[in-house]
């Protein structure tokens, strides 16, 4: 799943969070750190500086 700009960033994050919640209800828990990385990896290349900044933070 990739963010294509057809919706807001907030809507994209909410949808991915909802997918993780549905997976959890099916018995497949998604680690929160994995979900954050999954969301960051879904962003287009112009978000590269944001991704790099997030990944270099010590306290997340």
TrEMBL record:
It holds the Pfam family Retrotran_gag_2. It comes from the Eukaryota. This is Retrovirus-related Pol polyprotein from transposon TNT 1-94. It comes from Cajanus cajan. The lineage of its organism: Eukaryota, Viridiplantae, Streptophyta, Embryophyta, Tracheophyta.
């Amino acid at each position: 799943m990739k963010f294509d700009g057809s919706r807001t960033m907030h809507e994209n994050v909410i949808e991915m969070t909802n997918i993780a919640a549905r997976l959890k209800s099916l018995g497949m828990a998604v680690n929160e750190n994995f979900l954050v990385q999954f969301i960051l990896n879904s962003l287009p290349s112009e978000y590269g500086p944001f991704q790099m900044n997030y990944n270099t933070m010590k306290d997340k």
